[in-house]
Amino acid sequence: MRSSDIRRTFLDYFTDRGHTRTPSSPLIPDDPGLLLTIAGMNQFKPYYLGERQPPQPRLTSVQKCVRTSDIDNVGRTTRHATFFEMLGNFSFDDYFKADTIAYAWELFTRHYQLDPDRIWITVFSDDDESVRLWRRIGVPESRIQRLGMRDNYWSMGVPGPSGPSSELCYDRGPKFGPEGGPAVNDERYVELWNLVFMQHLRGEGDGKEDFPILGDLPTRNIDTGLGLDRLAAILQGVDTICETDLLAPTLDVAQELAGRQFPGHDGSPESVSFQVVTEHARSAAFLLADGVLPGNEGRGYVLRRLLRRVVRHARTLGIETPVLAAVTGSVVENLGGTWPELVAGRALIEAVTTHEEESFGGTLRQGGRLLDAAIGRVRGTDTTRLSGETAFELHDTYGFPIDLTIDAARAAGLTVDEERYAVLLDEQRRRARGGGRGRTADQERRLDTYRRLLTRHGRTDFAGYTGTLVET
Ligand code: ATP
Ligand code: MG
Ligand code: MG
Ligand code: MG
Predict the structure, then answer these.
(1) Containing domain of residue 150, as a range?
(2) Strands 189-202 and 160-171
(3) Could you write out the DSSP letters of every residue in 425-467?
(4) Do 186 and 264 fall within a single domain?
(5) Model-level pTM?
(6) 334 plus 435 within the same structural domain
(7) For 145-158, what is each residue's pLDDT tens digit?
(8) What spacing in Å lies between the alpha carbon of 107 and ligand 1's midpoint?
(9) Is the CB of 202 under 6 A from ligand 1?
(10) Ligand 3: centre distance to CA 194 (Å)
């Protein structure tokens, strides 16, 4: 099933059941606490909190999401992207657990024709009601697993609506490792669909587990998220999201430029690099189309990191020619029919990626030499750690985002002193602020260039340089 049919099947299923189709919100959320849109429910937060009335009690959408927190997983797992489309159905004070579970099961087994015997269910530890509902639908006890806060309690990572969840996972078979269900092997039993019973208000706290639940929301609601990329991988019979029709044309461009084949998901540096180049190209194109420009803070930095990682991973694949405009251009070609903002942003995407690659290309080689030399020096000693000073110099002088340095160190079997790096970075930021300006002359110059590009392409929604926001 092609990804366009997967989207349509989902939306038709829920509109046939009284849901109103809502367009995706932009990647830049209308929420001061959030850096980027990470889930379908983000734009509906005021409805869950009772601050605003939903237009309808039942909505459905295909939401563009960016999760920077997954940047390190790309290419290391088969299933994590930094950008992905989330299919969702939402109920506000309307249906709750029983209907949500029945809908999900029917859509999966009847419409997508997934093998019911390979579907595994997870529920929140004490949620006996959900276990009963899944049992009634015919799922045997042996394929229902109870998990804790980290996996089966959902929130946006910030204070706001939250709740226990139940997830549908799919067994991809022994090729992906030992049996035992999603609790023990999340690559084999890939998580596809999260059904959140949105009924609590979470407070301030750290991470995914350590926060207080302040009480009940005014209403009981539903929020679900089904990852399009992952479902496409299953339905199209491919191992990785990069081989689905969402990303295959971009992977093809990378293979052509590199003059060699993607080896498949085999854990090799080459395999990881192919997936990083392919996957990040899509995120970058979508961020640019939504008005984010490369910068040194906030969203702009997220974009810059993605672009620089593409360039560096392309170089390790032996691609010495410009890569960014080609791979992001293929994203526009492939997905522009579904997402017209890509087509509207085509010229801007090409101009900014070309410019960014030129400005990074010059320092990449010098920085790379410094990095290789530092790695060589550490190897001659009995430590396995690259110093925070080296990481900082690479960042400060050569524009190497820290995760590039970490990648390179890891490929050489080393770690990076990230704490020391963070201290140095913080000191520098404070110095810059004390000096009255947070930007160097070079940054000012580039900012001007991007402002001009934006004016030329008729875009005014500049969002590259933003303050520090919560990144989840
Ligand atoms: P995982 O545990 O695999 O990291 P998650 O629990 O963080 O996923 P949810 O927050 O529950 O994900 O999001 C709902 C759905 O969105 C997931 O079930 C999955 O299908 C999809 N999804 C989440 N993160 C990603 C990602 N980085 N790339 C692609 N799809 C994703
Ligand atoms: Mg995750
Ligand atoms: Mg999960
Ligand atoms: Mg989940």
Answers:
(1) 3-235
(2) antiparallel
(3) HHHHHHHHHHTT-SS-HHHHHHHHHHHHHHHHTT-----SS--
(4) no
(5) 0.89
(6) yes
(7) 999 999 999 998 88
(8) 19
(9) no
(10) 8
